[in-house]
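We now fix the convention by which a protein and its fold are recorded. Think of the row as the fold of the chain written in a discrete alphabet. Here is one such record, which you should read through line by line.
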Amino acid sequence: MDALNVYTEAEVDYFIDTIKDVKPFPKLRDLRKVLSPTLSLDKINAILKYLERSKQILVDLDGNIVWIKNNNMKEASNLSETADFSKEFLEHFGKY
């Protein structure tokens, strides 16, 4: 039997693809509603921590997902060149 927080690459891809389709990006508190029943709460939390640590997702202090790394992005690219910012982020901080 697998641990509840063990996840596969396919589950990580599902997580990213699903939240990319939600406009504006969902708040952390809404992830369970968006990703259930496919992912358990334990898997959602484990995948979220992995994505934050690997700098593939950016969450602000209010719990808003504000940026998701594109799969085809070069490592040396800067954030403003490659970012897919939420509408709210752009309204608050401006385009660049």
Notes: The chain is about 45% helix and 5% strand. The longest strand covers residues 65-68.
